[in-house]
Structures
1.
Amino acid sequence: MLWYIDPGTGSMLFTVLLGVIGAAVYSIKAFRLKLKTKLSGGKAKANADRIPFVIFSDNRRYWTVFEPICREMGKRGKEIVYLTGSEDDPALTCGLENVKAEYIGPGNKMFARLNSLNASVVLSTTPGLDVYQWKRSPQVGLYVHIPHAASEVVLYRMFGLDYYDAVLLSGKYQEEDIRALEKLRGLPEKELVNVGIPYMDEMAKRLVRAGDAPAHPRTVLLAPSWGKSAIFGRYGGRIIEILQKTGYHVIVRPHPQSFTSEKEMIDRLMADYPESDGLEWNRDPDNFEVLRRSDILVSDFSGVIFEFCLVYDKPVIYTDPDFDLSPYDAWWLDKPLWTASALPRLGRRLDDTNVGSLKDMIDECIADPAFAEGRRQVKEETWAHPFEGASLTADYLIGRLEGLTEKEEDK
């Protein structure tokens, strides 16, 4: 007789198994430590092996979020243990003396390590702590979340931040949304600290050093996200064809995931619209130069919108995201998304009725001073403490470690 286990039950059983393994590992460690304490006449401390600061990143692309924080912590003589789920994470070869980077992935091996972690402070940009396979370790003092975009924190999958102890924010609207969710779900209040956006600070500093882009023809950057609701999913190659007819230089930069999940479509588009004097395809790992030399961005719900508008101070043409909010935390809130109020101030909305007038929309967005004022307003709402993000983050992490240490000593 064959036994069938549905995916939901299988996931639950696996979570239970991980919990048992984590508990066993913790018990063994506790027994060894107790034995060591007894043999040493009581001099060994229970937290002797505890790591002060851990950063966990599930993907290599989040190194840009953590690098400025790691550098700032290094200036203050603080060591970081950096655990990553990507074997090609730049952290592994970053050369920072205070960063001890380790590849712990993938999958179940990664979660088993995280679930038995012994650390004082854990900083991560990964949502879903204590919801799916990543469980809180009883040996961790504080879990801190830092977002990887300058927008809503309620666009994570449901319960994404519920079980973090603290969240580092960049705008008051984010704090209001989290507090509303806590009230609805009867959760204890988390520590919410407004530190700004360290990775965007670094982009802005780099732009100041680089200066204006060299003289170039008017350039349009098409940088969509991926999936059925993204620009290529809605308009296909037609959007490239319309942009070519504007006479402007066009750069097409697909989302990196498109080359994996939508490879057939991308291959077809690249064959139908090959590179020429007026059209280029861009896959640079670093998007700094392509953003610097573009005059306007055409995108959808990609996070690059806020980087382009707020760091480079340029307008955008965007499509409304057409997706179901029910799996996300935002579904619980009886209010429109902050992004819905921000985007019209940053540029023009693209839809089926005006896609044929794209050239006029581009010219209007670049020339109209109202969009420049809109960028200033949005920046003020979602990018607190410009150029201070890494410093304020380090202040918080170090201060909280000192507080945890004092509490341990009191015990």
Note: The longest strand covers residues 51-57.
2.
Amino acid sequence: MNKLIKSASAVLAAATIAGVNIAPAALAWGDNSGKQGGRETYTLKDCNSDYSKCTITPSLGNKITFNSITNNPAIGGDERDFVNARENTGVNDGKQTWQSHEITVEDGKEYIIRLYAHNNNPNGTKAVAKNTTLHFTLPTTAGTELSVQGSIDSSNADPTRVYDDIVFKSKNGETFYLDYIEGSALYENNSVGKSKANGGNGGVTLSDDIITSKGTLIGYDKLDGNIPGCFQYASYTTIRVKAVYLNNSYTVEKTVRKIGDADKTYKDSVDANVGDTVEYQIYYKNTTGEHVDNVMVKDILPNNMEYIAGSTKLYNTTNPNGIKNDDDTITTTGINIGGYNKDGDAYIRFRAKVVDKSMVCGTNKLVNWGQVGVGKTTLQDNAFVMVKKTEGCEKQPDNPTPNEDDKKTPTVMPSTGPGAIVAGVVGAGSIVTALGYYLASRKSLR
């Protein structure tokens, strides 16, 4: 099995459970108008230097629409192309070049993604867009090309959603992921988010909900979702991401099987009932050309799984029949499984019982994460157990329902070193939101 593909699909599944939209490889601009060729577009005529005498053709009348002008000189042309990016050099003097379709990234460098929002109706406070929300759809898988989509939603706009995307590409075909910088969402306009250059405070920070399907409200004089029409009410919103090339010096694969089944094969997922016992397996292989020491392994159990004491065993060349780990720390602080030569590998197995601490009626998807840390790098992969609850339930949902307590992945990966114990991860019983789930789904952190 291709470990990278398997692990990437596991992260993709995790994000889908949490309600995080996944960006397709190529989107470009679009909307939800349902019209062939997309939404109606407009042009500016007779503009002066401050755009105060512009006319819009055809006339918008009472119609409210976002980013549909094709010759807006303020952004260099077509407003439908409203998401772009550039490297974050630490300088912002207006001379930086923004890339509007694709951008080439380098390992470890940070990039700024910018979204322009303009209610095109020229009638100001007489044409206010309501419940205006922004969100960015960030990829949750690794790849050589990754698409980031930015969307603008408004309940009374036509269409109610417009979107655009930009493609990030690695320099020489390396596999990478985009690491969102928490707290980096910045909103700038002529009022609540006035820039320092215009006498303001340098913009206002938006919630990190901006990278979830929920999104975050924007506004003019306050973040209430109300955006009047015309140029003076337009805004820019930026977020920051870091390109991280994958460290392929080792591989990790997480699988599971149900004890008592005739089929003893370890799989990505199994069906089980409350009271059943499952056995998880974490596989590690050293794919570097040299020996490595102090390989650390930790597992994150979902809330409705209970670790069975004394069940952890390590299988490797030295211990082909398995050696028991009596510390029982695989799901708490983690265990050190020693050193491995080139192509050396190991299997770590342990058992857990399905319990009903917070099951919901219908099908529960219990996601379990296994982590392996070598030096300062940690990779993770998941497996899951599907449990259908019927007792005490009159009607069963048709679709699998992730229990909030089961959306549990580490928000900070373990850091390892000589004699170190895996630490700094989310402990048992933690609850994470859709945002937390996305942030936790990165393949490796530095």
Note: Helices lie at 3-18, 434-439.
3.
Amino acid sequence: MKVGYLVQQLSIRNLSGMNAVKSRSYITILLHVLLWMLFAFVLLFYQPLTWGINVPYQFWMKQSVVLILLIVVFYLNSMVLVPQLVLRNKSLLFLLIILLIAVAAGPLVHLFEDAVQLPRLMEKAFDQVGMHRPPKKSDRLDLFLILMLLIIVGISTSVTIIQKWQADKQLREALEKEKIGSELSFLKAQINPHFFFNTLNNIYALTHVDVDNSRNALHKLSRMMRYLLYDTQSGVTSLKKEVSFIQDYITLMKLRLNETTKVIFNAPDDGDAIEIAPMMILPYVENAFKHGVSTVVPSEIFIDLVLNGRQLELTVTNSIFSDQSVSADEYGGIGLHNTKRRLDLLYPNTHTFSAGQTEDHKFIVHLTLTLDGTELHRS
């Protein structure tokens, strides 16, 4: 039934997406039609209506031909010339074609006028009201038509380039979101499988000596799995849940530690209304347990999480032993490097990060994040 429900939900989302796309398409078409109607009225039809003469229908045919010519040039430029020439750095060829179209448009329109005998009909219409129409120049170069064509080409080119820029931006954002999602999935898999295997073994051994503690450990492990499977799917989680996850992780890790290791975790009590990218803190804690624990030498792991307004400050300090002297990159491995990439994507210019070894054989990771302080909204 759960599979059927998921299929149903996916079908509903797909239909909703298709309906949204169709709605946007209809709106775009309607907007284009309205803009062309406004353009045609202002430039082609308004002025002749103010002449006060009985304009022959051949004149409106000619104006319609001019409008169709402008529309053809607009979409030819938008769909063919700009994508094939301008966006491929063939600007000189683009300019030559546009100039050729602009120069050829005038003679084509004049041929139509001569075919329907429009000049004679217009002179007759002006004579009927006692108005003298100035004679047209004998050349076939229509400067007003050329100017309109160049304006149309300029608008079409600008709109197409802006749309291409917006599409590229949306694609980059989609790729970044997909990359973030992949890195989050990778981070989930990054939790050492040996941790779960060893934790289950420790819980099994604990059932023989302390049933209550073993039940508590199983509860924490199941709560961690629920967090990983469900609470991280929306891309954000509350800081309180993230802290609870880290606390459960530390509690279960302590099952494997002996008395020579001291673990201190300081965390804020609030944070339920503060959003954070999930699994952002764990890699630093996990690496501290990986490199800062010894079975024979006393060691210490100190994790300090401070929330000041919308700024979150994390400090992780762990012991480094003489045979484990490593650089920050070696210490972090893939998990820490991956988390740093997520920081750059999710918190650009709103985070600081540093990691390094001190002279007293301590390794310190310091991270500050500026978080969103709004209430969580879950779909």
Note: Residues 2-49 form the longest helix (48 residues).
